[in-house]
Amino acid sequence: MHTASLPKTGIPLIGETDWGTNICLFYETKDDLLKTTAAYFEAGVADHELCVWAVSDPVTEIDAKDALQSCILGFQDYVASGAIDISSNEQWDLKEDEFNLQRITGGWTAKLNQALERGYQGLRISGNASWLETNHWKEFCEYDQEIDRCVAGKRIIVLCTHSLSAQRALDVPEIVRAHHFTIYRRHDEWEFADSPKLKQAAAEIEQLKETVGKLAAHFPAAEQLTHREKAVLAQIVQGGSSKEIGRELGISPRTIEFHRANIMTKIGARNVADLVRIILGD
Prior knowledge:
Number of helices: 14
Radius of gyration: 19 Å
Distance between the termini: 37 Å
């Protein structure tokens, strides 16, 4: 039986998240990558999730095992039982240099079904996609979007990792838009990849007290909403559509729909009208 608690990401900036979340990490060094991914899987093991690390350059399977063994007590037992699966990224992404989205997402769905049948809370995945971007950039963009569709509504969370040194600056916004959260880790320093518009919108839930005049100071479940969900909520209360909100915050409409659904669930609203009524305290 599944518990009602949210999955813990093991990432300080995010904390807990909802199932169906697609997280992006830009890392500066190999050490940043290993530490972040190891902590992410340490949290997954603790929550009794099936953990799959699809490794690729600059990380080897030996690197991954060493990183996990340093922070997970009984690591070898988890590997032996299949609770932790470390394999080559190419086994998931490319076969004879051919990129097949359906094979990848189909494999993830099958893995999730196996996890649930075996009593795990869900499936936790991480893969480093930077090696794929140069030679298969078009397919890579489709890949990031397909991940979003694949995990929606399922007990899966995904951590996609990208090297800052290998990433072209003009490609970063495209990658950010394809994920629910994007974070940077540079030599153990953390940072959210929020656009200036998103940072400004994060404060609008407070500004609505003046513009609307009667926003409930402590509406139900306010403390459960994330930084980004509050920014989206502020826009919803002002009547923005998913497309309009996405344009305003610099993220995709599909990501807005993801946050909108989570907000509705957390606050207990049946529809947008009900949500506005609850937030305004009517």
